[in-house]
Amino acid sequence: MATEKKIIKAIKINADLCNGCRACEMICSAFHSLPMYSSNNPARARIRVVRHPLEDIYVPVYAGESVGAECAGRDKYIIDGKEYDECAFCRASCPSRDDFKEPDSGLPLRCDMCEGEDEPMCVKWCITDALTLEEREEEVEIVEPQEKLDIGLASLVETHGMQKIMDAVTRMSSLKDFK
Amino acid sequence: MRYGETGYNLEIDLTRSNIERVSTNPEDSQLYLGGLGTNAKIMWDRVPPEVEAFSPDNLLIFAAGLLCGTPATGCNRTIVTTISPQTQLLVFSMMGGFWAPELKYAGYDKVILRGKSPKLVYLWIKDDKVEIRDASHLKGKGAIETAELICQELKEPKAQVAAIGMAGENRVYFASIEQGRSSASRGGIGAVMGDKGVKAIVVRGTKDIHLSRPAEFMELCNEAMDYIKFRNENPIPGVMPILAILGSPQEMKIHDEKWHTENFMWGNSRERRKGFWTEEIAKDWTQTMEKMRTRLISCYNCPMTCGATISPPGKPTYMMKCFSKLTYTMAAFSDLAFGLGIAQSATEHGVDGFSAPQVMAFALELLEAGILTKDDFPGMPEDSEGRFYWLLDHIVRREGIGDVLANGTYWAARQIGNGAEKYAHNNIKKQEQLPLKLSMLNPIYFLMYATGEKLNITQIEGQFPQAPFPTREEREAFVKDWFQVPDEKFKQYFLDWELRGEKSIPFYPTPEMCCDIVDWQERMHYIDDALGMCAGLSSFPLKPPYHIHNYPKLISSGVGLDMDEATLTEAAKRYRTLVRAINTRRGMRRKDEKPPANHWKKRFPELEKELLDTYYAFKGWNEQGIPTEETLRDLGLDYVYEEFVKRGVYSDNGDTPSQATPAVIDKEV
Ligand code: SF4
Ligand code: SF4
Ligand code: SF4
User: Fold this and answer.
1) Which of the four pLDDT bands, split at 50, 70 and 90, describes residue A176?
2) Which three-class secondary structure state does DSSP give residue B614?
3) CA neighbours closer than 13 Å in the CB half-sphere of residue B451
């Protein structure tokens, strides 16, 4: 199969270096406001710092995909004797919680790696280096976009049924963000 | 739309459980900025001098500075303003941490408390929803414990809590307001909060803060950040470690305490221990700190990590910053392990880390001198550490002798009598000061100590080096990239300043130069306190990222106010004068403006008089330290002048209210 070179971007999170300042949350929300930087509001950030100073818990977590339904069960980690919140490390914008949602509309938020910038804003503002960017090149198999779409849709149809998917597509096509 | 600020205050009448959201006048922002500036205006307008600290008519104002909640790094201060039970003057104490930005995101610039709640309550502010809630189950609880319990009961882990401990509830005159990582400690504002029956104010906000000209503002922020990085990599040579770098003194990071332990006084600000800092002690203290310190932590939107989480063996974890690291240790002639341990209890009880240890050391001196006797301390252990814990406990509960000591050294000495006054020797305007006793009068510091109204030397000093550098070369190197100066003349003042000879203290800098130097330093602190900027990135360290040249641009691009160096300087002068006017109206006069008599061994009464005369004139104050008609009118403070005339202020040599008695002598608990 054909392969291509792809730049993989990864943000390395060194939670040991996090000081809990939430500059990452602030600047993410400012960067994504419209016009850019015209306002900020950490509640809109695509990163959140799980922060319990007295338990020495500092975990920056990035917003991933939004999920339609919460998981069947929740997870709860204990590491080095520290008990983390339920679902603490999960990146999903999920109906079970308020995290990674616009505070007013409830629309899901997702980290887009600050597309277009040389360096993600949260990385730039975290000068204590709890957040650093790593880029590497990888050979990946070329998957035809169409093929990728079909696979994705088939799995959605399996979960929700054809009718619901059709309804969703109709609904989404009326939202300007998706045009 | 308002930029930078929200344009709304919360007015809470605790007597009637009434809550109002009130829009503010944008003209006030132009004239008084925000934070301390607009707090002072409200205090002038609404708290006449007859109102005592524990009157329901006293206000307790929590203000987020003008730029808090904007992307400006380190702008996170809450400025708490009220009338102090200890000094009976206007007090304004700042706290860092996370509270002020959270208040902004909830949609408010200030929370203004008046009246008194009949039972203990806490306030819960979540965006538009504001509630007064019962706090009877939190009575007697520690400040940190209270914060944890409230977040649990509200199921709001992200809420920020400013709370008092037992000291505040029992109206200890040096009770603090604690907020996790930070505290507003000076002047007994925690006691006013306790008197109002408020255990905590809890905030969570999820709204936007807007900027007027975002691109311009962000460029200034980026420049400040780059300069912070530069300064982190290039400490200033030739000054002691904590002054070489940025941040509120980096006491959690720096292990070398030779300077503090050998230059500051131990006990009740009495004994200087030269040669104390041996290799062995350095090793022991470093180990102690490294064992107990779990992590270095920052305030909101700041990379400086000036604080730390501390876990003393067998005690709960707490957060610490700055010099409280050493105040208990040194007052008790003990070691760092003791200091870090007792500070945990002190933080939970909520007491000022400057005053509290001195009050305790003062009590023990009185015992030694026979002015107090063993009977005054029933059950007190024999060892110094045990005695400090015993005293702390009795003070915060106001039990036995603790009830007297809880009023601070000034008032306690008067109540005890029998020569005790001599032992309350380290106060200015009735408040305990840093334990420093030096040899030669320093004219700059003389003026700052005498005339400062923040009553803490760290809250007025900063921009100008504390002492001359030994060689001209070093001085030249220092001034080379000193672009923060408001005027080139400051470089010359410093270049010519010598360790010895004609151009050395006390006669150089000359009184005129001292006026310039003090005025610049004070101005930067006042600007910080209006903007909500941390002094650790601005007015306190040498060569900071924020200064008189970039501040006007930050204010105008952030808030949209018309601001340049001249208008900013004028605004700062306006509310600085208003602070003085409030205190003048409360009876403060020249006689109150003096450093402790023993602060320096070598004093120069004539020079001191000349310094004060020159400085008063420079500031536009008369020989009593009262702002003159001309000064007031120039600043648009005609209303102050009219009130002064009505009250006969200019012909009165002053008497702070109820000189002879503390604000409370009765006991209610
Ligand atoms: S900016 Fe960095 S140090 Fe600050 S909270 Fe985010 S990850 Fe932690
Ligand atoms: S990479 Fe960009 S979008 Fe993602 S969290 Fe960081 S600042 Fe936000
Ligand atoms: S410099 Fe230090 S004290 Fe100041 S805001 Fe930053 S972390 Fe807080």
Assistant:
1) low
2) helix
3) 33
- Specify the pLDDT at position A175: 67
Q: Which residues of chain B register pLDDT less than 50?
A: 657-669
User: Could you tell me the two tokens for B621?
Assistant: 């104050």
Q: CB count, 10 Å around CB of B224?
A: 22
For the Cβ of A21 lying below 6 angstroms from any atom of ligand 1, the answer is yes
This prediction has a pTM of: 0.93
Full 3-state SS string of B68-92? CCCCCCCECCEEEEEECCCCCCEEE
Q: Which domain holds residue B410?
A: 237-432
Residue A80: which residues within 8 A CB-CB, separation 6 or more? Answer: none
Kindly write down the DSSP assignment for every residue of B182-217, as one continuous string.
EEE-GGGHHHHHHHTTEEEEEEE----EE-SSHHHH
Q: Which residue's alpha carbon is at the smallest distance from atom 7 of ligand 3? A: B298
- Over its C-alpha atoms, chain A yields an Rg (Å, rounded) of 19
Q: Does any CB of chain A come closer than 8 Å to the CB of residue B478?
A: no
The pLDDT of residue B121: 98
What is d(CA B214, CA B104) in angstroms, rounded to the nearest whole number?
18
Selected residue of B248, B298, B557 to mutate for chain A interface (largest A Cβ count, 10 A): B298
How many Å is the Cα radius of gyration of chain B? Answer: 23
Return residues 40-99 of B near A (CB < 8 Å).
Answer: 69-71, 73, 98
CATH number, domain with residue B511? 1.10.599.10
φ, ψ of residue B621 in degrees (nearest 5) = -110, 150
B580 and B454 part of one domain: yes
Nearest CA-CA distance, residue B214 and chain A, Å: 5
The residue whose CA is least distant from atom 4 of ligand 2 is A111
* Virtual torsion, Cα B270, B272, B273, B274, nearest 10 deg: -170
Same domain, B538 and B636: yes
**DSSP state letter for B626:** P
Indicate the helix (H) or strand (E) that contains B124. strand B121-126
How far is residue B78's CA from residue A92's CA, in Å, rounded to a whole number? 34
B1 touches chain A (CB under 8 A): no
Say if residue B268 is in the same domain as residue B388: yes
Q: Across the interface, do B309 and A54 touch by the CB < 8 Å criterion?
A: yes
Interchain CB contact of B300 with A (< 8 Å): yes
Which residue among A13, A14, A17, A18 is best mutated to probe the pocket of ligand 1, counting the most ligand atoms within 8 A of its Cβ? A18
Cα–Cα nearest to B4, from A122, A38, A24: A38
Residue B405 in any domain: the answer is yes
Residue of B nearest to A19 (CA): B297
Residue B228 lies in a domain: no
Inspect the interface and report whether the beta carbons of A43 and B206 lie closer than 8 Å: yes
Over residues B140-157, the pLDDT tens digits come to 999 999 999 999 999 999
Dihedrals phi, psi of B294, to nearest 5 degrees: -85, -35
**pLDDT of A168 strictly over 90:** no
Nearest-Cα distance to chain B for A22, in Å, is 6
Is B225 inside any structural domain? no
Render pLDDT for B392-421 as a digit per residue (tens, 0 to 9).
999 999 999 999 999 999 999 999 999 999
Query: What distance in angstroms lies between residue B479's CA and the mean position of ligand 3's atoms?
Result: 25
- Transcribe B126-158 into DSSP letters: ETTEEEEEE-GGGTT--HHHHHHHHHHHHT-TT
d(CA B83, CA B465): 33
Q: State the DSSP code for B250.
A: -
A123/A128 Cα distance (integer angstroms): 10
Is residue B2 situated within a structural domain?
A: no
- Say what the ipTM of the complex is: 0.94
- Site from A22, A49, A52, A102 to mutate, B interface, most B CB atoms within 10 angstroms: A22
Q: Parallel, antiparallel, or unpaired: how do β-strands B438-440 and B600-602 relate?
A: parallel
